[in-house]
């Protein structure tokens, strides 16, 4: 059985480990530079910038093994005048896939969206990640081909900020 819980400050090492596992799956193992201190500072203070759900597999002896997570935050739709739930990362460890863990995380995020008056729940998916696209499609989500992700980082971000 899979259970979900909100992450606490005691989970920052676990969150970072799961993020690193996700980065490995996404073929970017060296791209994670976040630290436990970053997550502690930004996620568990008086004004958290993000939230995390932890999925755990419950064993017959009531032991709990972390098997996945959803990392999300709230944005705002200027056109609809309402909050938006933005899923930054969703990851389920390979041994726990195809048993409802991903679905449980997504269902909980949908509930959180509704409870917070969100007009939509959105996320990005890598173009090569066919299993994820299939999963999202089964949930009723649509990949929007007319929208492309745009990102400004590093030197480009610094140069623009100095103008």
Report what the structure shows.
The chain is an alpha+beta fold and 163 residues long. It has one domain: 3-Layer(aba) Sandwich (Aminopeptidase). It contains five helices and five strands, in the order E-H-H-E-E-E-H-E-H-H. A five-stranded mixed beta sheet has the order 1-2-3-4-5. Helix 1 (12-25) crosses helix 2. The chain is globular, with a radius of gyration of 17 Å. 17% of the residues are buried. The model has no long low-confidence stretch (mean pLDDT 95).
Task: Give a short overview.
With 163 residues, the chain is of the alpha+beta class. It has a single domain (2-161), classed as Aminopeptidase, CATH 3.40.630. It has helices at 12-25, 36-43, 101-115, 130-138, 154-161; strands at residues 2-6, 51-58, 64-77, 82-92, 120-123.
